[in-house]
């Protein structure tokens, strides 16, 4: 039962995460498309009366089929959550349309960082919102907040590549901290997904209403729907930035509280001196991440237990006996056997 409890908790966490991140925004987009189709917006002027009349004809069977369609679409596009977040972060090198805008965004954020650090003299805020190095700047505010945490979390302890060491230290963090990491990541993902969905709804509804003449017929009153969706998308983006700040602060806690657990898991005793500990973590990072042959060989390993020491002595004894019995061993004794006896 103890082994099944974490599995059930993990399954419940994944299920709730999918419901929030994948299913809810997809259902909102599907509802918007269905409302446009039911109101006749794709064939002519939209009508709220027609929308109400057609909605009343939806029975349980049709609702179930629509739910299965929405669920299937959400399940298919759920693995694309990470590329979606990276798009909002500003990784636009491989997108020809946004590649030219990338440098403009970087320059805007460079000036914002200079204003915070120099004019307002708030270096703490500047380090929380932007990475310390200019070459690490990204064209969006969300990307800079996450990049700042990825570059600085654990840096004071010797983690030169914190984001690459996070998967190695994550299995040893406490359950409460792991839950906080999962919740912060879920909040970030749902805010990013809602932001993109709301902006997509604003573009879809706006283009549809302009194309069928509803905007001109209503003297621009129908533009309130796409405008409201766009404003909500802006608020969702700001919520994503706040969630990214919270996520970054939790990453600091991961390295502050569990760096010694990683050292013990690798078989080394954490040094008492902070300088030696930082040097050990730097060597471990270079050894595991950069694959440099500079493993922490100058540090004392954990002393083996009595049982482990006894097993080690037995293994060495067996190996020594095998070498002695080898025909090419110079110390092998040739035993004379008596006639009629068997060799041991």
Give the amount of beta strand, in percent.
under 5%
Based on CA atoms alone, the radius of gyration comes out at 31 Å
What fraction, in percent, of the residue positions are helical?
55-70%
Average pLDDT metric = 80
Helix and strand string, N-terminal first?
A: HHHHHHHHHHHHH
| Basic shape | elongated
Estimated structural class? mainly alpha
SS elements, strand count = 0
Helix count equals 13
Structure notes:
The protein has about 350 residues and is mainly α. The chain has helices at about 5-40, 50-55, 60-75, 80-90, 95-120, 125-130, 140-150, 160-170, 175-210, 215, 225-265, 275-290, 305-325. It has a domain at about 15-90 and about 140-265.
Describe the secondary-structure layout.
Blueprint: H1 4-38, H2 48-55, H3 60-77, H4 81-89, H5 96-119, H6 123-129, H7 141-152, H8 162-169, H9 175-211, H10 214-217, H11 224-265, H12 274-288, H13 306-325
Quick structural summary:
The protein is mainly α and 344 residues long. It is 69% helix and 0% strand.
Which structural traits does this protein have?
single chain; 344 residues; mainly alpha; 13 helices; 69% helix; disordered N terminus
């Amino acid at each position: 039962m103890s082994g099944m409890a974490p599995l059930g908790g993990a399954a419940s966490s994944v299920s709730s995460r999918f419901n929030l991140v994948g299913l809810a925004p997809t259902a909102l987009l599907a509802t918007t498309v269905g409302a446009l189709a039911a109101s006749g917006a794709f064939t002519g002027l939209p009508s709220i009366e027609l929308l109400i009349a057609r909605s009343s004809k939806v029975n349980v069977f049709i609702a179930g089929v629509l739910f299965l369609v929405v669920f299937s679409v959400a399940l298919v596009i759920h693995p694309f959550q990470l590329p979606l977040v990276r798009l909002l972060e500003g990784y636009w090198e491989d997108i020809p349309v946004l590649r030219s805008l990338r440098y403009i965004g970087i320059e805007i954020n460079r000036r914002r960082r200079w204003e915070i650090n120099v004019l307002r003299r708030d270096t703490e805020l500047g380090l929380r919102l932007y990475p310390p190095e200019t070459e690490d700047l990204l064209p969006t505010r969300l990307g800079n907040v996450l990049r700042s945490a990825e570059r600085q979390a654990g840096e004071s302890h010797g983690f030169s590549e914190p984001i690459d060491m996070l998967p190695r230290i994550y299995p040893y963090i406490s359950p409460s901290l792991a839950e906080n990491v999962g919740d912060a990541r879920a909040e970030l993902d749902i805010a990013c997904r809602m932001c993109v969905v709301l902006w997509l709804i604003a573009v879809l509804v706006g283009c549809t209403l302009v194309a069928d003449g509803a905007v001109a017929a209503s003297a621009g009153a129908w533009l309130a729907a796409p405008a409201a969706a766009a404003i909500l998308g802006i608020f969702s983006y700001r919520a994503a930035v706040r969630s990214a700040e919270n996520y970054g602060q939790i990453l600091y806690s991961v390295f502050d509280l569990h760096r010694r657990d990683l050292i013990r898991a690798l078989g080394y005793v954490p040094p008492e001196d902070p300088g030696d500990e930082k040097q050990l973590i730097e060597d471990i990072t270079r050894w595991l991440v950069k694959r440099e042959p500079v493993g922490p060989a100058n540090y004392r390993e954990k002393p083996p237990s009595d049982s482990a020491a006894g097993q080690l002595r037995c293994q060495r004894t067996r190996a020594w006996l095998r070498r002695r019995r080898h025909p090419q061993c110079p110390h092998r004794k040739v035993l004379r056997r008596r006639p009629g006896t068997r060799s041991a």
